[in-house]
Amino acid sequence: MNKYLIAVFVCAFLGAVAQILLKQGSGNAKQWFEYANFYVFLGLMLYGVAMVGYLWALPHGEVSIFYPVLALSYLFVAILSTVFLKENLTLAKALGSAGIILCVWVIAR
To answer: What is the torsional sign of CA 94, 100, 103, 104?
Structure first.
């Protein structure tokens, strides 16, 4: 596995963490200015870092391999939301995550 593929993998994880932070920051906001908080800011910053990392890696590999690796962010969100947001990991989510892992493995090898 080359360093660029690892970078894309890290970007997928950062994007998932950003999603959890955005969920946490959105809370029960009723007005637009209630979204201006630390969690939302940090989530947006992580999305930015993930995008820059992806752009750095992109010229050094095939987008047909890199982009499916980004799909691992769905798996990461399922795990992180279960741990940090106490959301239920249903059978459907688990099977869907297993399908994503299988597809990424087939494409990336």
So the answer is: negative
pLDDT in tens, 38-69: 999 999 999 999 999 999 999 999 998 898 89
* Sign of the torsion angle spanned by Cα atoms 26, 21, 14, 109: negative
CA 79 to CA 97: how far, in whole Å?
9
Range of the domain at 69: 3-108
Give the integer Cα–Cα distance in Å for 63 and 10.
16
pTM score over 0.85: yes
Domain count, the chain: 1
Q: How is residue 38 written in tokens?
A: 């630390």
Distance CA 36, CA 34 (A): 5
